[in-house]
Amino acid sequence: MEPRVKIINRNIAKSKNCRCRYNNPKDFDILEININHNGVLYTYKVESQCLSTAKDSIHFYPEIDVNGNLKVRWSGDIEGYIKRVK
Hints:
Layout: E1 5-11, E2 18-21, E3 30-37, E4 40-47, E5 57-64, E6 70-74, E7 83-84
Parallel strand pairs: 1-3
Antiparallel strand pairs: 2-5, 3-4, 4-7, 5-6
Protein backbone atom coordinates (compact mmCIF):
# COMPACT_ATOMS: atom_id res chain seq x y z
CA MET A 1 0.00 0.00 0.00
CA GLU A 2 1.28 3.44 -0.94
CA PRO A 3 1.80 5.86 1.96
CA ARG A 4 -0.61 8.78 2.14
CA VAL A 5 1.38 11.99 1.59
CA LYS A 6 0.24 15.47 2.56
CA ILE A 7 2.08 18.17 0.59
CA ILE A 8 2.56 21.73 1.79
CA ASN A 9 4.09 24.34 -0.52
CA ARG A 10 5.65 27.49 0.94
CA ASN A 11 7.42 30.48 -0.61
CA ILE A 12 10.05 32.30 1.38
CA ALA A 13 10.13 36.05 1.05
CA LYS A 14 11.22 38.18 3.98
CA SER A 15 9.54 36.09 6.65
CA LYS A 16 11.49 35.23 9.79
CA ASN A 17 8.96 32.76 11.21
CA CYS A 18 6.99 30.45 8.94
CA ARG A 19 4.27 27.97 9.79
CA CYS A 20 3.19 24.79 8.05
CA ARG A 21 -0.31 23.78 9.05
CA TYR A 22 -0.84 20.04 8.74
CA ASN A 23 -4.10 19.71 10.74
CA ASN A 24 -4.58 16.10 11.90
CA PRO A 25 -1.49 13.88 11.43
CA LYS A 26 -3.71 10.78 11.52
CA ASP A 27 -5.03 11.73 8.07
CA PHE A 28 -1.70 11.03 6.31
CA ASP A 29 1.48 8.97 6.67
CA ILE A 30 4.13 11.43 5.45
CA LEU A 31 4.22 15.21 5.52
CA GLU A 32 6.15 16.71 2.61
CA ILE A 33 7.08 20.38 2.81
CA ASN A 34 8.27 22.10 -0.38
CA ILE A 35 9.94 25.43 0.28
CA ASN A 36 10.66 27.70 -2.69
CA HIS A 37 13.37 30.31 -2.27
CA ASN A 38 14.59 32.34 -5.28
CA GLY A 39 13.49 29.63 -7.71
CA VAL A 40 15.20 26.80 -5.80
CA LEU A 41 12.99 24.09 -4.32
CA TYR A 42 13.94 22.61 -0.94
CA THR A 43 11.95 19.50 -0.01
CA TYR A 44 11.64 18.10 3.51
CA LYS A 45 9.78 15.02 4.74
CA VAL A 46 8.68 13.77 8.14
CA GLU A 47 6.59 10.77 9.15
CA SER A 48 3.22 11.73 10.60
CA GLN A 49 3.80 9.68 13.77
CA CYS A 50 6.53 12.22 14.68
CA LEU A 51 4.06 15.12 14.57
CA SER A 52 2.12 16.33 17.57
CA THR A 53 -1.58 15.57 17.71
CA ALA A 54 -1.96 18.36 20.28
CA LYS A 55 -0.94 20.93 17.64
CA ASP A 56 -1.91 21.43 14.02
CA SER A 57 1.28 22.94 12.63
CA ILE A 58 5.04 23.19 12.83
CA HIS A 59 7.19 26.31 12.62
CA PHE A 60 10.46 26.91 10.87
CA TYR A 61 12.89 29.79 10.69
CA PRO A 62 14.54 30.47 7.33
CA GLU A 63 18.10 31.77 7.29
CA ILE A 64 19.80 32.96 4.12
CA ASP A 65 23.59 32.60 3.96
CA VAL A 66 25.98 35.02 2.21
CA ASN A 67 25.67 33.02 -1.04
CA GLY A 68 21.87 33.32 -1.00
CA ASN A 69 21.29 29.68 -0.02
CA LEU A 70 18.48 28.79 2.32
CA LYS A 71 19.06 27.08 5.65
CA VAL A 72 15.98 26.00 7.59
CA ARG A 73 15.87 25.67 11.37
CA TRP A 74 12.81 23.77 12.61
CA SER A 75 11.22 24.54 15.97
CA GLY A 76 10.88 22.09 18.81
CA ASP A 77 11.52 18.38 18.78
CA ILE A 78 10.63 17.99 15.10
CA GLU A 79 14.11 19.09 14.01
CA GLY A 80 15.49 15.65 14.85
CA TYR A 81 12.90 13.90 12.68
CA ILE A 82 12.44 16.06 9.62
CA LYS A 83 14.86 15.35 6.76
CA ARG A 84 15.77 17.24 3.64
CA VAL A 85 15.30 15.02 0.59
CA LYS A 86 16.32 17.36 -2.24
